[in-house]
Every structure is written in structure tokens, then in C-alpha cells.
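My current task is to audit a protein record that another person submitted. I need someone to confirm that the C-alpha cell line plausibly describes how this chain folds. Take the sequence as given and treat only the C-alpha cells as open to question. This is what I was given:
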Amino acid sequence: MNTYATIKTQTVEAANGVTYAYRDLGEDGAQRPLVLLQHFRGNLDNWDPALIDVLAAGRRVITFDNRGVGATTGTTPDTVTAMAEDAIAFIAALDLGSVDLLGFSLGSFVAQEIALIRPNLVRRVVLASSAPQGASGMHGWSPQVVAAVGGETASAEGYVGIFFTRPENATAAGRVFGTRTEGHDAPATWSTAVAQYDAVTRWGIPNHALLQRVQGITQPVFVANGDSDPMILPRYSHLLAGLLPDATVKIYPDAAHGFLFQHHEQFAADVAAFLDR
């Protein structure tokens, strides 16, 4: 039986000339495929295998490296809109039809943009550790966060400090950083990190007029975060949910940016309930 820690990486060439690396777990059925969009500097290996395995118990789950990230070809773009267009090209290359989206952190910005650019492609959306474009206070990260995850050399220790509130809550880090024994993805490069941070910063330039854009996302949306996220504060989850026409919000206790890994069983159950309702 395949698990996320053992399943092989596949590739597909899209119409935009990019060859995308992806992993595909679970079975096609009555449910739409669930496409996952990854965080800053993250690649295929940086999803928690335990979370993916639970999500894939009832549906097909697809993770992928967007353009220029990990083993995917091309150059990483420096805007969320371009990342969304590249993700749309990947979905089209797999001929998935309508999908559900789960975007985490930077991936949640991309998920919003996909739903706005190509609304007929998206049935439901899960936004983890997210914020709307143009919100005040989102223009760059705090020095603490930049020091932990924004340096030229990324470290597991830096991510643990931002993703988890305290050491005893960081057991998921061992799964994320140490479960896969072969077939590892290529790490994100420094040029990818710079381009992605430029995209994050552009997204956060204060512009309250842009807050109206998310009202165009009419699909049901589940917004979630940890109560102690230092990277994207939980107040942005409430702001985002309040702006969306059809949204529910949940804040997970004693959890930071990686709440979905720490609370993987509960989060997966909440996602399944939301997608199946």
C-alpha cells in the first residue's frame, strides 16, 4: 500500500513548457481531486506524510512543485498571480477538470488567486495560515521570522521555531524532515526563496481597495490557523473569513504556523467534513 512517504514522484509537461514534479496519492472517486499548494521554500518533501495519508484516505490528493521550485523546471516567478497561472497550467496538464484546493501560507495566497482567475476550475477552497491581499500589517515578516526561515541557508531548526509553539508540540517536524528515506525532492534554491519572498511582500503591500477582490471568491471556503502563528497572525484568518461571501473559520489551540501538521488528524477530519458536506 502506497503512503506519502513511499510514493514515487512523477512528472508531467504542461502547455506552458514547464515540466512539473508531483506526487499523487489516493483513488479517484465521487470526490473532486484535492490539489495542495505549498508554503514558502517548501517542496514535495515538506508536506507532513501523516497529514497527506489521512487526507488521501477518502479522496485523491495531489502535491506538486510549482514552476522553478524543487524538481520542477523553469524560473520561480515573483508574483502570486504568475504562480497561480502556473498552477492552473499544471492542473490542466493532468486533465483534472474541477478540483478542490488546499493552500498553505504562500500557497493559500495562490489558491485565492486561482479561484479568482479561473473560478470554474475550483469547487471548494481550504486556506491554511492565510491573509487577504492588501491587508495592513502584512508587508513583510517580522525580524524573528526572517531570521528563522529567510536566510540563504534554510534549517529545520528555524522552521521548527516558527511552525510550533514549543518542543513538545513539534513531533510532526520529525515526520516532515525525516520520514522519506529515498527519492527525495530537490531543495528549493536561494533564487526561489528570493522570488517567493518578493511575491509575499507584494501581496502584503497595504491597499485596502484590494480587500474587495476576495468577495469574488464565491465558492465555500474553510479558513484555518493556529492561535499563536508568528508568521501570519490569526487575526488575518478572521479578517479573510469576514470578507469572503461563504466562509467558516477555525483557530487551533496552542499551535503556530504548522498547526495543520501538529493537529494533523483533527485538521484532516475538519477538511474532509468541509469538502464532503
